[in-house]
Amino acid sequence: MQLLRSFLFRLASTAITLIGVAVIVFFVIRIVPGDPISMMLPPGATDEDIARLTALYGLDKSIPQQFLIWAGGVLHGDFGMSITARRPVLELVLGRLPATLELSIMALVIAVILGGAAALIGTRERGTKIEAGIDVGNGMALSVPDFLWALVLILLFGVAWPVFHISGRITPSLDLPFATNFYLFESVLRLRFDLWADIVSHMFMPALALAIPLAAIIGQLLKQSLKETMHLDYVTLARTKGYGENRVIIREALPNAILPTLTLVGVQFTFLIGGTVIIERLFSYEGLGNMAIDAVINRDLPLIQGIVILFAVIFTAVNLVVDLTYALLNPRLRHA
Amino acid sequence: MLDGRSQVRRKVGLRLWLSGGWLLLLVLAALFAPLLSPHNPLEQDLFLGRMPPFWEQGAEPGFYLGTDSLGRDVLARILYGARIALIVALVAGGLTGLIGSTLGLLAGYLRGWVDVVISRLIDIWMAFPPILFSILLIAVLGPGLLSIIIAIVVIDWTRFARVIRAEAMAQGAMDYSASARVAGRRRLSTMVIEILPNVLPTIVVLLTLEMGIAVIVEAILSFVNLSISTDDPTWGGMISEGRASIHQAWWVMVFPLVTLFLTVLSFSQLGEGLKDRFDPVLR
Amino acid sequence: MSYLKISNLDVRLAGTPMRLLRDVSLTVKSGEVHGLVGESGAGKSMIGKAVLGILPRATEIVGGSIELDGVDLLALSPREHRYRLGQSCALIPQDPLTALNPSRRIAPQITDRLTNILGWEAKRARDRAIELLDEVHIPDPERVMRSYPHELSGGMRQRILIASAFAAEPKLIVADEPTTALDVTVQKQILKLIKEMQQRHDTALLFVTHDLGVVSKICQSLSVLYAGKVVESTDVRSFFDEPAHAYSRALLAATPKYTDPEASLMPVPEAVIAAVKAEVEAADKSWKHD
Is C79 within 8 Å of A244 when comparing Cβ atoms? Predict the structure, then answer.
């Protein structure tokens, strides 16, 4: 009951945050200089044409009026029309969302694997040169953001030793049998491992660049709490049961050490998703972020709104999911 | 036991020296760019386009790190680029720190409705994708150095506000601030006299880290071409240009990238080193 | 006949000359309860940890041997060492509140030695666990098996830890101040339970405590420690009748008698402490020569 109530409270608080995001982004982009309508029309368009089109997109009304009309539409699932693409914003945005989601999740998986391995090995070898080396690596990875790691990776594995693709999501000349935009998942479901390999080869570097800072955070936090846990009595007791170091770390210490790491990783994962904007641009990856930058350059106001709102929804959803997972994993909360 | 501790200290010291040394070098390069650089960073010579650095075959004498596709000297552009990077770091970092810390202190110490409003703002800000938000702001404000600085401050004040709010709350709960209140001091002066000095080390550390972030944001915005006009030498702009011709002329991207990498690493290591210094456990 | 034989054991703080155990020798016979007494910091827990191979990383064994059933544990490979210990030794820890893994249910924490070291099937191990919980007088063992540690009281948890220690029928159990962290009312029950279980399973017990009253109730023999050195190792009767060492006598005088709680207590005299210190330092000097 307590859990349900705090969950509902969180939900309400999230709604207020999302409304705040909507209001701010709506008013900020209305003061963008540059008239989107005149950018759409050919040079010979008359003032009449401009006025007609402006009225069509509702841009002739006052800004608060425009907001109410827009907000009313959003409640019915109508995010307006993109000015440049002349298609519904929702359709465009949902078409690109899978690419960004796949990239973020692949980055998360890489980060968990790298960071988890660093933490486990560091704990096992605590107090040795190996742990010191892991600490130095973590420090480096944390000091430099994903943008720079991406450039370094492009130089290393795209130019100096070209093993991965540095641009796009899939080789354009390939025939695509996909029914959805979740290329990575669908290629596995359809057992098309040739396509899967091509997609992974495109995604690997952007995903790795996004993953490096998060991996370092996971590595550092998890190692710290693992090392603290290793001193506790139940771990010592497990040792007397004849278990080796590996088993003691993984079976006894890890389940308890994960919880404090999990909450911070949630926030960090939203930072990672925010990072896709520039990383997608850098790798010409056709996701939401790349579309967002184009939308800003083209002054496509409805599209910008739609994308920012979607990002905000994803961020808050990630935080909610993390909180729920925390409650589910923690036996004390689960039974409370 | 003594050995372990002194080793930690030595490592911290080396880290501070290396990162501080690189940043000092950068400051000198920025100050004396006109004296140091052999060429005008804006001077184009299409006949001298994409000349390799001095140790490669076919290098043009006098252009030590080669030229870009418009024949501009890479070294000169890196040196002048340091000016823009450092201005952004200092001004944007400083302003962000000032505004963010003030709001954080007010929220954490005064609590009540001030805290409610500021915390809600922080929540809303955390729900924005920061890079997209900054690109949007540059679109609103128009390109230019001032726009970049404003964009960084608007986006990043929450970094300070979040941490300082929590610290101020912890400090405000301690006995000494209560006794200052009992002694009849006003709330705001208690905040400045009793709380501020105790959160100052944290502010300094955050400030150092923020400077590195500011340099990166400037580079990202230049990269997306929303920063300063493309003629002006910025590291991000150079990287963006070099990315396009990476297979023909690697040096156009590699040198500014290495400079940017070392600078960001140094700010960050300096911040971490200072954090260790201030940490009473290690002190 | 002795099951555990510690000879000339020396433990140092790793990388330093600081000695934690000095030339410790003692024996525990099969089925016997041997008390380890001394002030806090005297190294009594350290001996138990050395036997179980759970010394902290910052320490190192620099000399001596620990023989279990005639086999020198320190000469085994780490893997064999762990296996042998897991099979034949167990620990009853000091603090029941921290000694159970908070994220695992009770059942696997009792049975995992059976399934992993002895290779039992899950069903058989489960039945045995319920039997054990019955033996330590826990009502409704089925429900307790499904519980998480935080749902049970401290006394319950200590009973579970005792059941878990006896699960694999070990030949030797180290009890590390098993009643110190408990309420006084629970202490007596737990002590009675340990004695009952020890007699039923005929297990040798190395009982670490600072309480001579407890020793007189449960132990057949004991060793007195001071500053990491065994100053006297004897059977309980002769210890209480005529303690051989001056420090033992002083310790005895400083302990309240259950028969006469009003009798005045003598603190350990300065002179005795000085004498025992000098003795330890002399032993130290002779040790440094090799």
Answer: yes
